[in-house]
Amino acid sequence: MNILSRYYWNIINFHTYVKLKIYTIISFFFLDNKLFCQYRIYLLRIMGSKIGSNCNIRYGPVFQEGFNINIGNNVFINSQCQFDTSAKITIEDNVIISHQVSFITGSHKIGSHNNRAGDYNPQPIVVKKGAWICAKAIILPGIIVGEGSIVAAGAVVTKDVPQDVMVAGVPAKIIKYLDNNDKKTI
Question: Which pTM value belongs to this model?
């Protein structure tokens, strides 16, 4: 093998190596089976997140500002959810979070005329036990979603949600009071 052919062989090996590394990174975000869900949870724990047992985090989660998140037991987080962890996000046991839900902890105080986006003001978000947050809902800073509550698809939650209610709309408002016997599909 001459020098030129060795050079090209090394380039081919390098490209194969890069492709494998890119595949590994992409698979973390986009492949969706039990092994990759466990791998995501493992990596999040290494980064400092506290995650309980029997959790499932589907592909494409986005964590901004670090990994300041506590997740309880038996939590299901569906694909492409966004977590702004400028302040702590707490998700208690038995919570279901659907596709593309956004948890936004960061905001700004209203500033002066020259700069309306004033001081940065992150506030924590808490989702209590048994809550269900439906697809594309947005949870804003400082919100507590009550135990056993439902946030309907596309709702923008601007105020705390009491326990055992269903909220919907922009801004989210109570549309139904739930009891232990409510087992209907939304």
Answer: 0.78
